[in-house]
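Much of our argument rests on the idea that a fold can be written as discrete symbols. In the encoding step, the backbone of a single protein was reduced to a row of integers, each denoting a local shape. We regard such an encoding as a compact summary of how the chain folds. The record that follows shows the chain in one-letter code together with its fold in token form:
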Amino acid sequence: MIHLHDVSFSYRRNRLLYDHLNLTLRPGSIYGLLGPNGAGKSTLLRLLTGLLYPKSGSIRVGEWRPGDRKPGFLEDLFFVPEEFYLPPVRIGQFVTGNAQFYPRFDTAQMALYLREFGLTNGQNLNELSYGQKKKVLIGFGLATNTALLLMDEPTNGLDIPSKSQFRRLVAGAVDDRRTVVISTHQVRDLETLIDPIVILTGEPGGRMRIGLNATVEEITDRLWFGMTAELDASRPILYSERAVGGYALVAENQHDEPSRLDLERLFNTVQAEPDRIAQLFSTTLTGINA
């Protein structure tokens, strides 16, 4: 279990990015972390790794405080950043040299990922494209079998077939022990993978808060995603946009109508109507974010 309690953080004096942020993440899930540009998604991931330290409040990842950077914590955490450096060595040398730091690392699993991504141990990392390097790092992260796996914009640089492979491999690498958190702007790439959804939204003064933390089932239970030819005043519409043939809507689901989640529209709804979303999901937010 991961708990952030009353966490405050700032890069600049007198300008908080987070102020009394509360969030709980549970194992066995692939969380999608969404937010506007500059919302602090990467910052939140770095707070979880202990690379950044909160100004106040507490962060617990299982029994560990990330800021202590204890060996037991580090061997059960892997972080795939958006920007990274890999040494000019062969893939096999990179794997052998780094796998020893992760007690649950599975060599056979890593070999499978390399085959899936069309890579071999003999290839030099410095001769690979950015997307190929990212595949190596993603595969290595999955093969560590750490309790916490964090990925920042992992599908950037991947082509369309590789994005499909990524979704399949990540889904197959999660068990009841593992928590995966994926920060992304590419919501269409991950719409069928991430659940629950965590969305950051702004407050007056530029501070960020958790606008939503809910499962897909909870979201589609309380919100309706659909198309209409004309805007209907009788339906409590939270967000609408023009589309071919009418309007794409997000509305309050007052009649228990089934619908399919649209992550992009959900994100826009949380940004446009943060207070109403907070009311609709108050039970969820209280139970998960407390």
About this structure: The chain has two domains: 2-202, 215-289. Residues 215-289 form one domain. The longest strand covers residues 2-9.
